[in-house]
Design a protein that fits this description.
four-stranded antiparallel β-sheet, 21% helix, 33% strand, globular
Length: 336
């Protein structure tokens, strides 16, 4: 299974907090990229991470003001990727430049456009406003996975795996037992999957963060904006009650790094116990453990797929409806 890259799309390259005056290297859609902030106006710059001279990684070089000076031979590049200094000669070759990629900083993410820059429109970036909203408290992180990025999309759109892979963390029997509803907007590239559990056990993730001791009504409503952004709108209340209602927004940015590799940006935002440092620390550590369970499972799955004989036909059932719709949309986007 190899999911083709859709190049003319926005992807998350980093959290805004990750990008500063230290050069940061990332690989997006197989393209090595270096990111940094300018001294002049604190904006994010993204350039191809290879010097034109001998391909030395610019992310392993240094900044002089807002110029990157290659750490191998000193070729220097401004924020547009244009070479402005060549050692040992006055003439700068006309082809001495590296690609500069459109970027946008929105909702705590740094988004990047790897495709045709003429098509980059920041107004098309899907939103996750809760990530930068002071009314929400957020914990977040990023983990690389050695697996096809389509595997992570499948994983997130079928939450029945919570019962088995994340039992004792976020999974309970009701998640796998409850049927889903699926809505697909092919034109917009959006998949919505809902799972509403009127009477479910309260998993430790919620019991310890909210203080609920009994059973809960648990609503899971997914919105996946292909190819990159996934939102899980979660709401729980004690069974038979309308209050208190605890809302959690689970966000994933799914960024293909290279064939068979993906960046898994994750965040948990809540509208309760916002100033409780103990709850914040618990959710950060607990959700990181959940993410690492997914990482380990998808790494294993990719290795199994790599050893699979040609012609094997996988089996899909009702819970795969959202994931199969996402595959169709991703294939269409890749053909553009």
């Amino acid at each position: 299974m190899a999911t083709a890259f859709a190049r003319n799309q926005w992807y998350v390259a980093a959290y805004g907090r990750e990008v500063g005056r230290e050069l940061l290297g990332r690989t997006i859609l197989g393209e090595p990229v270096v990111l940094y902030r300018t001294e002049e106006d604190d904006r994010v710059v993204a350039l191809a991470d290879r010097c034109v001279h001998r391909r030395f990684p610019l992310s392993e070089s240094r900044l002089e003001g807002d110029r990157i000076v290659c750490g191998y031979h000193g070729f220097s590049y401004d924020t547009s990727g244009t070479c402005v200094f060549v050692p040992g000669q006055q003439r700068i070759p006309r082809t001495a430049r590296v690609n500069a990629y459109p970027v946008a900083e929105l909702d705590s993410f740094v988004w990047i456009w790897i495709g045709d820059p003429a098509l980059a429109d920041a107004k098309q970036i899907p939103r996750a406003p809760h990530l930068a909203d002071p009314q929400w408290t957020t914990v977040s992180g990023m983990e690389p996975i050695d697996g096809d990025y389509g595997l992570l999309v499948d994983n997130l759109l079928d939450l029945s795996h919570e019962t088995y892979l994340h039992g004792g963390y976020i999974g309970t029997p009701e998640v796998a037992e409850t049927p889903i509803t699926t809505e697909v907007d092919e034109a917009a590239g959006v998949v919505r999957v809902g799972r509403h559990m009127p009477d479910a056990a309260c998993p430790p993730f919620y019991a310890r963060s909210t203080g609920i001791e009994g059973r809960i009504t648990r609503l899971q409503d997914i919105e996946y904006f292909a190819p990159c952004l996934y939102l899980l709108h979660s709401r729980i209340t004690p069974v038979g009650q309308e209050a208190p209602s605890f809302r959690t927004e689970i966000t994933y940015a799914i960024t293909p790094s290279a064939p068979g590799q993906v960046y898994d940006f994750w965040a948990v935002s809540r509208d309760f116990a916002q100033d409780d440092a103990e709850v914040t620390g618990f959710l950060r550590d607990f959700n990181h453990q959940v993410v690492m369970q997914d990482v380990d499972a998808l790494n294993l799955l990719q290795r199994a797929l790599d050893r699979e004989p040609a012609g094997y036909q996988e089996l899909s059932i009702n819970i795969d409806t959202g994931g199969l719709a996402a595959r169709r949309i991703l294939a269409r986007l890749a053909d553009r």
